[in-house]
Backbone:
């Protein structure tokens, strides 16, 4: 039986992918479907060996739009059907404010990685070699040489025909290009966007886990479900509160007062223990990259570690629905709300490319 932590194929490929997150694994699978072998370097352990629940990375990610198209391209939708929860849209105050009629899913980053690595094991294990628990320490851009240290081993250097960076905002490849490629520059800017994550561990059977649940609009607070542990009777729920300033509380009572004033629904759904575990993360980044005349603007929306999550456009969508519903309520007999159909906003992407 193969060891998922460090499974070495008979032959390595000519392409290296730095980063074995969702983007890196999807790229590797897409290349394997064309018969192109790759070696993926990932610093974390194999997702099947990692804890099922990670408080830093188990927040809810929804996969629709471009994500759906990517999964269809690599024929991975059945793996996501089996491991993630179906996604049908967004609800606010028990009303559907946005339908998603196509296939879609919600889950944690770990769920996504487990689905993709399972597909690789079933279909592409001869073309994709993943070095888990492996830290890349140096990259020679011009020679295509990658220096890395496998778990329990010594530093090793290998040459590749192509090196692909899929290692996020702190990219080792980007840093190497800054040092070694003349004219390649990176501009960094911190945006005042913070996300406070709270696990919802009470009365969640009142929520439909096939929808993202907008719990408040100002500040924007949205909740979503991920698949539960093997011994869990149901999914686990998390909500994120997006603010322009970092939320910091001197006591649980102060946190509860803030929630009571701004997101009272959270207090119904989160226990005192969950409120005490309130976590915040640092600002997100907008990185402008320029190289030989080509410019790519990478927009990172309010998120916790890992930088996936809901974009500002989603908040505006729910806010518009809420305002129109409130206006209509004033004109309806008995104050009954009749939620009008609002034209869906254009889908916002995590990446916006411009010349």
Residues:
């Amino acid at each position: 039986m193969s060891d998922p932590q460090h499974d070495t194929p008979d032959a390595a490929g000519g392409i290296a992918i730095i980063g074995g997150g969702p983007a890196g694994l999807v790229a590797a699978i897409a290349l394997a479907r064309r018969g192109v072998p790759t070696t993926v370097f990932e610093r974390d352990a194999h997702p099947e060996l990692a804890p099922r629940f990670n408080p830093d990375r188990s927040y809810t990610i929804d996969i629709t739009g471009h994500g759906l198209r990517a999964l269809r391209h690599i024929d991975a939708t059945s793996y996501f059907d089996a491991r993630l929860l179906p996604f049908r849209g967004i609800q606010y105050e028990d009303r559907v404010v946005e339908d998603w009629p196509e296939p879609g899913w919600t889950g944690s980053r770990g769920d996504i990685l487990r689905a993709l690595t399972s597909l690789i094991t079933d279909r592409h294990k001869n073309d994709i070699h993943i070095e888990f628990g492996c830290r890349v320490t140096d990259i020679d851009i011009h020679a295509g040489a990658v220096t890395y240290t496998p778990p329990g081993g010594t530093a090793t250097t290998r040459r590749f025909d192509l090196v692909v960076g899929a290692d996020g905002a702190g990219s080792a490849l980007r840093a190497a290009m800054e040092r070694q490629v003349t004219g390649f520059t990176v501009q960094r800017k911190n945006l005042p966007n913070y996300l406070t994550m709270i696990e919802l561990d009470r009365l969640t059977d009142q929520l439909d886990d096939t929808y993202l649940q907008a719990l408040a609009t100002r500040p924007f607070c949205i909740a979503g479900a991920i698949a539960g542990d093997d011994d869990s009777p149901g999914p686990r729920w998390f909500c994120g509160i997006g603010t322009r300033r970092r939320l910091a509380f001197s006591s649980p009572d102060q946190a509860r007062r803030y929630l009571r004033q701004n997101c009272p629904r959270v207090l119904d759904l989160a226990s005192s223990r969950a409120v005490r575990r309130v976590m915040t993360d640092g600002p997100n980044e907008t990185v402008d990259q320029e190289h030989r005349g080509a410019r790519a603007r990478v927009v990172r929306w309010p998120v916790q570690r890992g930088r996936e999550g809901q974009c500002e456009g989603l908040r505006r969508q729910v806010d518009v629905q809420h305002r129109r519903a409130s206006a209509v309520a004033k004109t309806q007999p008995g104050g009954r709300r009749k939620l009008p159909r609002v034209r869906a906003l254009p889908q916002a992407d995590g990446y916006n490319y411009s010349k």
In short: The chain has two domains: 15-59+111-181, 89-107+183-355. The longest strand covers residues 236-243. Residues 89-107+183-355 form one domain.
